[in-house]
């Protein structure tokens, strides 16, 4: 395995650090292309959510400078985030990805949103063309592991999410949501989920503002709410008691002067802002105003703590599943690695066998068909006996820690390294010729590009 992962999350870094490294959806394809072009990276994936920013790479030698990629891409002083970084390699990187996808590393353990977010990151990376081989195997297995965790444990029971915890916090602030007006700023999945929870707990009217007004209308229609033009946000926001904001804006859209304006219009009746965006939508300075209460994504961790004890036992069961799946995946990769060596060994010895038969054929004289078959059977039997021990050793070594050393030793003993490289070169050349032929055929058929 040559996997490497680096990142920050809600455990290692506060929101003011995470928002400096957040990558909006619109910029993700470009970031992936630059990651794929980074020295030593063969495949890559970037996961950027409100709680984490992680870069996963399949590398040529297992030692790529991903910190260098962060420096070059974000153009942010490393001193601002270096101490918050974590980095994993090989099986540790696999384990971390399995835990993330299974929601064992989430702020709310067991929340279902992270699996969808990883799948979206995977789909984007595949569309860009930076996930195709080993990372494809890894991500596909991660999704299967997440499904197994949800099927075999109760970690997802009484499912909670950042949005549901935000609503729970609102209930603690107001006592009741009956008759409260709610303003959703941003019409993404998180806002939709928040709207469902709010209505279920007695919210009266829901306003929705989004930069794409059609999307705001669609979301508002689902809940008999009212869509507001984004340009009218500051003129209408004071109608709400609770504002839940989750846009992809690069900078704060609510500042202190907006809070003062809202309070004036509301005659100092309190407003509650739940900011679940990263980067944050609400300037922390607003929290200094009397009558304005601002909670960001990190503040929600206090509400999360009430769910931890209930899920601890199920999380422990899930961790055992993840550990077993990491070992299983490692064996699978090693098996894939050993197959080319076995095939190359078989080809190598078969070439020697045929060459030796051809070399002595002139001295054997004319052989009858029965004699030809006897010579062929004899030489095949000798080759099979020679191959038996190294092939058995290779198959057994797959499950041992020293598998890579054994595979490399067999390649060296039978001079297979050069044979494999030559075979790969020929396959790449054949693939390139096939692609050229396909393009030539498409042009000849008159298909317009």
Strands of the biggest beta sheet: in what spatial order?
Answer: 7-6-5-8-9-10
Structural class: alpha/beta
CATH architecture of the largest domain: 2-Layer Sandwich
Query: What characteristic shape results from the CA principal axes?
Result: elongated
Radius of gyration: 30 Å
- The total of helices stands at 15
Structure description:
By secondary structure, the chain is of the alpha/beta class. The chain has 3 domains: 154 residues, Beta Polymerase, domain 2, CATH 3.30.460.30; 142 residues, NAD(P)-binding Rossmann-like Domain (Rossmann fold, 3-Layer(aba) Sandwich), CATH 3.40.50; 90 residues, no CATH class. The chain contains 15 helices and 10 strands. The strands form 2 sheets. Strands 7-6-5-8-9-10 form a 6-stranded parallel beta sheet, with helices on both faces. Strands 2-3-1-4 form a 4-stranded antiparallel beta sheet, sandwiched between helices. The radius of gyration is 30 Å and the shape is elongated. It starts with a strand and ends in a 5-residue tail after the last helix. The C terminus is likely disordered.
Concise account of the structure shown:
Helices cover 57% and strands 12% of the residues.
List descriptors:
disordered C terminus; 449 residues; 4-stranded antiparallel β-sheet
């Amino acid at each position: 395995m040559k996997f490497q992962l680096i990142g920050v999350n809600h455990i290692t870094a506060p929101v003011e650090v995470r928002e400096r490294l957040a990558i909006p959806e619109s910029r993700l394809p470009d970031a992936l292309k630059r990651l794929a072009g980074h020295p030593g990276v063969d495949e890559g994936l970037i996961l950027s959510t409100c709680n984490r920013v992680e870069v996963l790479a399949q590398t040529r030698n297992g030692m790529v400078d991903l910190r260098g990629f962060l420096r070059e891409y974000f153009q942010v002083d490393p001193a601002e985030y270096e101490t918050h970084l974590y980095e994993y390699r090989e099986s540790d990187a696999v384990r971390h990805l399995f835990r993330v996808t299974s929601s064992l590393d989430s702020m709310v353990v067991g929340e279902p949103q992270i699996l969808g977010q990883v799948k979206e990151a995977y789909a984007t990376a595949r569309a860009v063309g930076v996930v195709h081989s080993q990372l494809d195997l890894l991500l596909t297995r991660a999704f299967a592991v997440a499904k197994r965790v949800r099927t075999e444990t109760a970690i997802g029971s009484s499912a909670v999410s950042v949005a549901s915890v935000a609503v729970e916090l609102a209930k603690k602030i107001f006592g009741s949501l009956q008759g409260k007006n709610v303003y959703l700023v941003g019409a993404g999945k998180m806002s939709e989920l928040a709207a469902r929870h709010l209505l279920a707990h007695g919210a009266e009217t829901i306003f929705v503002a989004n930069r794409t007004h059609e999307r705001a209308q669609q979301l508002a229609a689902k809940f008999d709410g009212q869509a507001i033009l984004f340009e009218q946000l500051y003129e209408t926001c004071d109608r709400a008691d609770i504002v839940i904001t989750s846009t992809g804006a690069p900078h704060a859209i609510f500042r202190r002067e907006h809070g003062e304006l809202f309070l004036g219009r509301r005659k100092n009746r309190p407003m509650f802002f739940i900011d679940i965006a990263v980067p944050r939508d609400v300037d922390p300075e607003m929290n200094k105003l009397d009558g304005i209460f601002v909670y960001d994504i990190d503040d929600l961790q206090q509400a999360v703590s009430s769910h931890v004890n209930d899920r601890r036992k199920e999380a422990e069961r899930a961790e055992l599943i993840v550990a077993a799946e990491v070992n299983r995946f490692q064996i699978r990769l090693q098996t894939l690695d050993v197959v080319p060596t076995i095939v190359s060994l078989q080809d190598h010895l078969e070439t020697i066998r045929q060459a030796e038969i051809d070399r002595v054929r002139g001295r054997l004289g004319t052989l009858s068909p029965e004699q030809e078959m006897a010579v062929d059977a004899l030489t095949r039997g000798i080759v099979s006996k020679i191959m038996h021990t190294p092939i058995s050793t290779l198959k057994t070594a797959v499950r041992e820690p020293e598998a890579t050393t054994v595979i490399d030793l067999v390649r060296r003993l039978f001079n297979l390294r050069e044979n494999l490289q030559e075979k790969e070169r020929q396959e790449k050349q054949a693939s390139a010729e096939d692609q050229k032929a396909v393009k030539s055929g498409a042009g000849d058929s008159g298909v317009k590009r």
